Structure prediction request, 91 residues.
Amino acid sequence: MNIVILDGSVMTSREKAYRHIGRELRFPEYFGKNLDATHDLLTDMYVNEDTIIILMNARKMKKSLGEYGDKLIDVFAASSEEKGFIFIVKE
Prediction:
């Protein structure tokens, strides 16, 4: 079982959010740092069904990123349904 903790409190801008996501999920250097690229890598070989991704401090992330924070959460949720990994949001 692979558990990945994402900390929404450090995701105070899109750039910082993607830097944190890429680092914690060990995405490759070519990671496009956008919603589509995030979905692609979450459903590709970088995450599998034995993975649990926990987003801590989601409220702080959404406060910093606004509507984009909700879109990011939606991408993780949709990707988890498609790929079979577990995605948990903690406010």
Notes: The helical segments are 14-24, 35-42, 58-65, 67-83. The mean pLDDT is 96. The chain has one domain: 2-89. The beta strands are 2-7, 51-56, 86-89.
